[in-house]
């Protein structure tokens, strides 16, 4: 039972990342009809927003401390971060420590701006082009973004630690009646799960209960009719592209302490996220979330040694195997609209 609970937690953790990225992909496909292969790059850019803010907050200046000497006997040089000199040692060090959560505020305007530029500058020219053209141009854009990040940040992963408060692990076992240290799970992964749930709920609430969201949902169902009512649906769809970019960016920001950001992390998640979208149903937001958590849990359980002894390598192919079965049995996905991907 303890192993099952631990794998379930692992599955929810993986599913959170899959669901957040797939949610943004589905928003773009559902509103604009664009297959955006650059979405993984947006996830990566969010992670590097956290890296950038941490580097900015860690900028320091050197002062000479005559009371201390280095190994050569010269007066020691001490580096003091600027934020500590501005806000005091305690508050300044706390700001640096909380750089990842603070990067949420830093990343939102940046990612929305990146989304606007992508949509207005490039993707709008491919709305009526075949999906193959959309895939090629957005995949090329993803490679460009990836190489730019590699040029400025290097090829090696950059450790981006979580706040000290969330380092360590939570003992689930004691809550469920197990012995101590039987079922333990990192605090930050739990934070990521709850953060993902909050973002998903916020997106659904925005679409369901706001006038803007209702118009967007109406435009997704019948774009021409909404346009005939005098509503500039294209402008609203551009805003939704920016929101989708922000969702992917925030997913990357909070994932930075879990997996040290590197220039190819977007590609690592991109293919899996598209599989999630296909399994959930192209254009279905609930389907993207459901499939994200479902496939995350399946991948987690398939990585158990007991399973791999029976089916070696199953953890590497389980997601694709499920996708093949779904496409054969129900081409539109679990919750996709009838007719989508079925003609």
Automatic annotation (TrEMBL):
It is found in: Cell membrane. It holds the Pfam family BPD_transp_2. One of its GO terms (biological process) is amino acid transport. The keyword Transport applies. It comes from the Bacteria. The chain crosses the membrane at residues 16-35, 42-61, 98-123, 190-216, 237-258, 270-298, 310-329. The keyword Ion transport does not apply. It is a multi-pass membrane protein. GO terms for cellular component: plasma membrane. GO terms for molecular function: transmembrane transporter activity. Keywords: Amino-acid transport, Cell membrane, Membrane, Transmembrane, Transmembrane helix, Transport. CDD domains: TM_PBP1_LivH_like. Belongs to the binding-protein-dependent transport system permease family. LivHM subfamily. This is Putative ABC transporter subunit. It comes from Litoreibacter arenae DSM 19593. The lineage of its organism: Bacteria, Pseudomonadati, Pseudomonadota, Alphaproteobacteria, Rhodobacterales.
């Amino acid at each position: 039972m303890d192993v099952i609970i631990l794998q379930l937690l692992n599955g929810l953790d993986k599913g959170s990342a899959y669901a957040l990225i797939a949610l943004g992909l589905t928003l773009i496909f559902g509103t604009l009809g664009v297959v955006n292969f650059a979405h993984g790059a947006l996830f990566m850019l969010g992670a590097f927003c956290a890296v950038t803010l941490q580097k900015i907050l860690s900028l320091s200046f050197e002062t000479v401390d005559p009371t201390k000497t280095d190994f050569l006997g010269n007066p020691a040089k001490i580096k003091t971060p600027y934020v500590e000199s501005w806000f005091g040692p305690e508050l300044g060090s706390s700001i640096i420590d909380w750089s990842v959560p603070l990067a949420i505020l830093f990343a939102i305007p940046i990612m929305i701006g990146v989304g606007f530029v992508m949509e207005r500058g490039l993707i709008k020219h491919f709305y009526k082009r075949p999906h193959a053209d959309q895939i090629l141009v957005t995949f090329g854009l993803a490679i460009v973004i990836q190489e730019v990040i590699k040029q400025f940040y290097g090829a090696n992963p950059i450790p981006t630690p979580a706040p000290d408060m969330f380092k360590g692990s939570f003992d689930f076992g004691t809550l469920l009646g197990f012995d101590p240290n039987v079922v333990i799970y990192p605090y930050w992964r739990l934070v990521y799960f709850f953060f993902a749930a909050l973002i998903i709920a916020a997106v659904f609430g925005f679409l369901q209960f706001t006038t803007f969201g209702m118009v967007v949902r109406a435009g997704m169902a019948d774009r021409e009719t909404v346009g005939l009512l005098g509503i500039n649906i294209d402008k609203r769809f551009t805003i939704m592209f920016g929101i989708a970019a922000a969702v992917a960016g925030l997913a990357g920001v909070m994932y930075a302490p879990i997996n040290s950001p590197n220039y190819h992390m977007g590609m690592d998640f991109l293919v899996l996220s598209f599989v999630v979208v296909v399994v959930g149903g192209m254009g279905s937001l609930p389907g993207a979330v459901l499939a994200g958590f479902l496939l995350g849990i399946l991948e987690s359980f398939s990585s158990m040694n007991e399973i791999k002894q029976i089916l070696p390598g199953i953890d590497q192919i389980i997601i694709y195997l499920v996708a093949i079965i779904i496409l054969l049995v129900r081409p539109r996905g679990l919750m996709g609209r009838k007719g989508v991907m079925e003609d």
